Amino acid sequence: MQRIKCDLLVIGAGSGGLSVAAGASQMGADVVLLEGHKMGGDCLNYGCVPSKALLASAKAAYGAAHSAAFGVADQVPQADYAAAKDHVQDVIDTIAPVDSQERFEGFGVRVIRALGRFISPREVEAGDHVITARRIVIATGSSPLVPPIPGLDQVPYETNETLFDLRERPDHLLIIGGGPIGLEMAQAHVRLGSKVTVIEGDTALAKDDPEAATLVLDHLRAEGVEIAEQALASEIRGAAGAIEVEAKDGRIFKGTHLLVAVGRKTNTERLNLDVAGIETTRSGIKVDDSLRTTNRRVYAIGDVAGGLQFTHVAGYHAGVIIRSVLFGLPSKAKTAHIPWATYTDPELAQVGLTEAEARKKHGSQLEIARFDFSHNDRALAERKAKGFIKAMVVKGRPVGVTIVGHQAGELINLWSLVLANNMKMSQVAAMVSPYPTIGEVNKRVAGAYFSPRLFDNPKVERVVRFVQRWIP
């Protein structure tokens, strides 16, 4: 057994772990990084990257079939599912060197390709190594949650970890779960030629603004995605090519393939956390505002920390703890400015409070400003006029923004900046956007907030009349 001592041990080479390792090493720390599976973690290999690559293939197919409105004859797309998966793999392979072992060793990080488990509060065993570190960061992420549905273990099924290896297009894909992953893959597959049924035990996109979610769901249904809500799966039966999902209310859904997309579970089971004095909760590892665990020498970041499960949150967490781990300075993680997006078409994005949350928290102090994409000239030119943006504003400052429509995931970036810096709507209104751009909706919703204060306002009218009459 080889013993190693270092300043910082990072367990997990996903987005958060890689960011911590690279930053700490380049600033002079002695860093060891453990990864027992693939460098780049879930996001590169099974999540964000492959799913968006497949959506891009699906978008191309859909565009070919819906181009008549632009003066170009519609065509029946010849979607090659295997070739689309080649595109997915090519994108992964192109990005992979950025997350590679060789690159991080170039930063001075010692990379050990083995799973880690605590053997004491300060020691971790990985393969034939025992590492003692001054500080330890757990960044082991999460895995697909497979619910205990009777019969599921008797039929073949996919998760996001296996779906992108599938080379033959499903004739009829059943998807259990109506969240972002389920709906993104539903739209991708229906556009590539599959029949798709989404089976959701509650309400699809339940965590999002209901009005925005309805717009997305209506569009997916119009494209041919069957979305069955309040359909809690109670039994699964059949075999490859002939699978049945029975809901608690007796509805039966039949298909050729099954994708389980009901959520994520944090990867803690192999870590032997009890030995290290690290407590867990139902959602992950227990951390304080500084992302420190109940073992003060150990931090947890990203999905495993039990909060919002997004790649960009893991990257944000990495920046938070670098300040504390390397410089001994206080640093706390916040959530109010964390955005998220569902990359269906149309896209749905949120930062801060939804309208319902804002009304509950702020009551009569809340004002809602809204602007519809149908009044944006670029959206009209590109036939992308379905959607809206609404800002929840309290005393002149936005506390949340909901966007549904073309490029919503891009548009929400500005509002994350605004909320992160406690900016006012007047500062957004002062921005000048190039014309014509989709991005104008951000400025226009700020204008919508101020319009009632300026137009049809007796006080403003009196001031204007006075100036026009008496000021030379």
UniProtKB/TrEMBL annotation:
Keywords: Disulfide bond, FAD, Flavoprotein, NAD, NADP, Nucleotide-binding, Oxidoreductase, Redox-active center
Annotated ranges, domain Pyridine nucleotide-disulphide oxidoreductase dimerisation: 338-443
Manner of cofactor binding, per the entry note: Binds 1 FAD per subunit.
Entry GO MF terms: flavin adenine dinucleotide binding; NAD(P)H dehydrogenase (quinone) activity; oxidoreductase activity, acting on a sulfur group of donors, NAD(P) as acceptor
Domain FAD/NAD(P)-binding: 7-317
Residues that hold FAD according to the record: K52, G116, T140, G141, S142, D303
Protein name per UniProt: Dihydrolipoamide dehydrogenase
Native organism: Phaeobacter gallaeciensis
Gene: merA
